[in-house]
Amino acid sequence: MKNHHSGGQRPQSKKSQTTLLEVKEQEELMKFLIAQLPHKNRNNIKSLLKKRQVLVDGKAITQFNHLLKPGQKVAFENAPAPIARQMRGVVVVHEDKDLIVVNKNAGLLTIATDKERRETVYSILSNYVKDQDKDNKIFIVHRLDRETSGLMLFAKNKEMKELLQESWKKTIAERSYLAVIDGKLDPSEGTYRSYLFESKVFKVHSTQDPDKGQPAVTHYSTLKSNDEYSLLKVNLETGRKNQIRVHLQDLKHAIIGDKKYGSTSNPIGRLGLHAWVLAFKHPLTGKNMRFETSIPGSFLKLF
Description:
The protein is α+β, with helices and mostly antiparallel strands. The protein folds into 3 domains: 14-77, Roll (Structural Genomics Hypothetical 15.5 Kd Protein In mrcA-pckA Intergenic Region, Chain A); 83-168, Pseudouridine synthase, CATH 3.30.2350.10; 173-275, Pseudouridine synthase, CATH 3.30.2350. The chain has 8 helices and 17 strands. Strands 7, 8, 9, 10, 11, 12, 13, 14, 15, 16 and 17 form an 11-stranded mixed β-sheet that branches. A hairpin with a 2-residue loop joins β3 (54-56) and β4. It starts with 16 loop residues before the first strand and ends with a helix. 28% of the residues are buried. Mean pLDDT is 89; it is low at 1-15.
């Protein structure tokens, strides 16, 4: 007999699955798993969810706060789902029915350009949501430069994309970046303002002439420094393309590894810029969401 399985389900081979647990009362998946798997800690369980190894009634679930109903069956796959193995460079930090927050590695483009067709955050996530249901889609809300790592927010439907883009300024409570620069800033904190415009060769330039570009405001403070480098926390008031990179060049302390904007050093083999904190008000539930990633190890080892 053929095994029909739809959208997010996977054909079940008895060999690949272990324990089958029955849900007795309504509760969040994480709580249920912690109680049922005393030999595993929270991180082990998060890893199982991330790798799509937890199945509820045969369907892979990644959200730890997924609500279980009495009578449902929870099973585990011994091996990570194929899609979880393919998501190189992208980790899903949060997902609900309307939006998805990911942490991306440096070196990944947000979306393909005319010149660039290789794997992007958009194509990886597109496959990821289509694996759950072939009609699912992903929508870009904002971008990160290819060489920047860190947190990004995507919408899972057109309504959410529009809601986020229309109310971006009001919705986003905090966007903090970490930047490693050459040398020390004096004063160690401050705000820099200029007007940015893009040249024909896609390089962004800064000017103090308001007629020439779009206003850009960057707040910065020094978290750590030594004789060679400083680690800054940077907050954007305006999210212009390459804004942090250009403003730090203006301040005569370019970001390490940023040859395009004036850096001559490259101690970690990548651009020293990371989208560290993303906090926003969920446009539909009104809930305050806050995500913070750990400081990249390569940044810390310079101090």
